[in-house]
TrEMBL record:
Cited InterPro entries: Auxin_biosynth/cation_transpt (IPR050982), FAD/NAD-bd_sf (IPR036188)
Record flagged with keyword Manganese: no
Keywords: Endoplasmic reticulum, FAD, Flavoprotein, Glycoprotein, Oxidoreductase, Signal
GO MF terms held by the record: flavin adenine dinucleotide binding; monooxygenase activity
Gene3D superfamilies, alphabetized: FAD/NAD(P)-binding domain
Record organism: Aptenodytes forsteri (Emperor penguin)
Protein's name according to its UniProt entry: FAD-dependent oxidoreductase domain-containing protein 2
Family: Belongs to the FOXRED2 family.
Organism ancestry: Eukaryota, Metazoa, Chordata, Craniata, Vertebrata
Region (Disordered): 634-657
Length: 675
């Protein structure tokens, strides 16, 4: 009977009507709404499924103590909106200036309720197509050679309504609590349900399992009312200022480190949680022991029959009984709704809480299935900001651009400039681009050179992990070589065991730029596009294969890479060496003399002066150039704009002598060492 009922339900399901959309987005959190925004702006057929009655349901519950650790820096001293996004970790990308998070909170670390309001307004003001109270409970495939990816995605919600999609964007985040099972784990309270009222912990002794921000957030809340707090985890504490990873312990939550190191009873311990066991005594106290002590023993017989570590080692660290044990082990991805046909597999090692995806954020096993937001963090786990709003708002835009090219023939956005603008274009981007800055080592600007290096095509924020596939993924060609502009920290500067405050930690000289420790721009030059094999065999911890040439722009205390001597000149000379050309700018008078004295004009003269563009010399302009250090201070002579119409003073020799081609004073400097 059961088999018959099951078969009939399958028939009913197969006969049910499917509501079709080109794109289905599961989850109306920040990444789901960000994807919806780009799809809507492009005029695509899409729908967002959200199980709750409002967007951002995760933030309605978490963090439990309601303070976000994403910074909301409202003032930077600059009006450049792109630059300001470098220090706004909460806003999503949109054209609407009303939807900047600084309009929703004045706090540097905002309240989570402000994020809930922000996401509600983002969805409503932009009129995003979100279908609320729709929980997708099953996803499977239907093979079809006519489909975009050779199959359709079939989705079923809690009301047995079926949907069919050509492309599936998973933006559900990681929301399933990580649970460790060991003897006595039934006595453990979860972060998701434990009381947040400090008075409930007054005079109690507490053990916290975990060592992330949720664990320290919980400890911070009860630090002033408990007898003492112990915290145990399998790994040592990782401080975000040492690792340069925003997911590690942030200073706002690390009060327990003070009380531990200043010997105020609280403490941190390292150990494998699966080796632990908890035994409850008659008074309700919880005793910590080890699993192997309980093997072949009847724990229900009482605490007196159980061997505790302190029975053999009388100074065992956790020999004091605890009133409460709290689990704060973070979350993992929910794999349960995906049919085996999708082959959604967890990652390996410390990435097992995320699904396996490619550097393009597409599933390794199923074409057309992309993972967005926090769940896509396996691409840059413990490296960059891809698991957080200020990172995945850019990776979501990158995925949208990949989809636009693949399914709609819209190439990756680009701009073509004359080669004389190469230095300026790079300097502009490294000084203001937020995507490069937040997703360092993951997203990069790509500069495609045109034939004979007379022009270049500029592509912004492309995932470097798929650089070898650039031509097929973007619809752009790279036959003449390319530059890759990326941001990096120093190779050996970040780590849990690193002292990042040591003397002489910063580099100030351009010739030592390759030794820069803090975040700084790096430019890679390739004569041809790297292959997939070269990408696989790249050196450990390198974002890219070995280039034909590489240049580090020296780190800057103000993250302002506009210094003429330290930043711009070495960069320009590096580019000139790679291209075997002169990228300097010249006044019209210099181009005029070049035309009479040289067989080949510099690109700036060919693209400017010869086309009747450029600045005509005058005494005022000359004086300004001299005062700015751009020209030598030689004896003034008349310019066409200053001389009477019929004046014919001066010979050709005098012209060549007085209008000598100016030599920039910085040209006497030797090239900074590029490595």
């Amino acid at each position: 009977l059961g088999l018959a009922l099951y078969a009939s339900s399958l028939c009913a399901a197969s006969g049910a009507a499917f509501l079709y959309h080109d794109y289905c987005v599961i989850g109306a959190g920040p990444s789901g709404l960000q994807a919806a925004y780009f799809l809507q702006r492009a005029g695509r057929d899409y729908v967002v499924f959200e199980r709750s009655h409002a967007p951002g349901s995760f933030f309605a519950l978490y963090p439990r103590h309601r303070k976000l650790i994403s910074i909301n820096k409202r003032y930077t001293g600059k009006s450049n909106s792109e630059f300001n996004l470098r220090h706004d970790w909460n806003s999503l990308l949109s054209h609407d200036r009303r939807l900047l998070f600084r309009r929703y909170s004045r706090d540097f670390f905002p309240d989570a309720d402000a994020m809930v309001r922000y996401l509600e307004d983002f969805a409503s003001l932009l009129k995003l197509r979100v279908q609320y109270n729709t929980a997708i409970i099953h996803v499977t495939l239907e093979r079809d050679g006519q489909a975009w990816n050779g199959h359709y995605f079939l989705l079923t919600d809690q009301d047995r309504q079926n949907y069919k999609c050509s492309s599936l964007l998973v933006a559900t985040g990681t929301w399933v609590p990580n649970v460790v099972n060991f003897p006595g784990s039934e006595y453990v309270e979860g972060y998701e349900t434990v009381s947040i009222n400090p008075e409930d912990f007054a005079g109690q002794t507490v053990l916290i399992l975990g060592r992330g921000n949720s664990a320290f957030e919980t400890a911070e809340n009860i630090l002033g009312v408990t007898n003492f707090i112990h915290m145990v985890s399998r790994s040592r504490v990782r401080l975000s200022w040492a690792t340069h990873y925003v997911g590690d312990l942030r200073a706002i939550n690390n009060g327990l480190l003070d009380t531990y190191q200043l010997k105020s009873l609280d403490g941190l311990l390292e150990g494998n949680l699966e080796d632990l066991a908890i035994v409850k005594d008659k008074k309700g106290k919880l005793h910590i022991t080890l699993r192997f002590y309980l093997e072949n023993r009847n724990t229900s017989a009482g605490i007196d029959s159980v061997t505790l570590p302190q029975d053999e080692l009388d100074n065992f660290a956790t020999r004091a009984p605890y009133d409460r044990v709290i689990r704060c082990l973070g979350w993992k991805f929910d794999f349960s709704i995906y049919n085996r046909s999708l082959r959604m597999m967890p990652g390996k090692g410390n990435k097992k809480k995320y699904p396996q995806i490619k550097p393009s954020y597409e599933s390794r096993s199923t074409r057309g299935l992309f993972v967005l937001g926090t769940a896509s963090h396996s691409v840059d786990f413990r490296k960059s900001a891809g698991g957080f709003i200020h990172g995945f708002r850019y990776t979501t835009r990158a995925v949208h651009r990949l989809l636009e090219n693949r399914h709609h023939g819209v190439p990756w956005p680009s701009t073509v400039y004359p080669i004389t603008q190469l230095t300026n274009s790079i300097i502009k981007r490294v000084n203001e681009a937020s995507g490069l800055y937040q997703m360092f080592s993951i997203l990069a600007d790509i500069i495609l050179l045109r034939e004979n290096a007379t022009a270049f095509e500029y592509l912004e924020e492309y995932p470097v992990g798929v650089l070898a596939e650039l031509e097929t993924q973007t619809g752009r060609k790279a036959p003449n070589g390319l530059f890759v502009v990326i941001m990096e920290y120093g190779r050996n500067f970040s780590g849990a065991d690193k002292d990042v405050f040591y003397y002489n930690r910063a580099v100030g000289e351009a010739q030592h730029a390759w030794q820069s420790n803090f975040l700084h721009p790096v430019i890679y030059y390739y004569k041809r596009l790297p292959t997939e094999r070269e990408m696989r065999l790249r050196p450990p911890d390198w974002p890219l294969p070995r280039p034909d040439a590489v240049h580090h722009i020296v780190e800057d205390f103000l993250t302002d890479w506009t210094a003429p001597n330290a930043h711009i000149l070495p960069l320009r000379r590096f580019l000139e060496n790679c291209l075997s050309t002169d990228l300097r700018n010249f006044f019209a008078e210099s181009c005029f003399l070049f035309a009479f004295t040289h067989q080949k004009l510099p690109p700036f003269c060919r693209q400017g002066y010869v086309r009747m563009q450029g600045l005509v010399g005058s005494e005022g302009l000359r004086r300004h150039a001299v005062e700015a250090g751009l020209l030598e201070d030689y004896a003034p002579t008349d310019f066409p704009g200053d001389r009477p119409p019929d004046s014919r003073e001066g010979s050709q020799d005098q012209l060549l002598r007085d209008h000598a081609i100016p030599v920039h004073p910085l040209q006497h400097l030797v090239n900074a060492k590029d490595e």
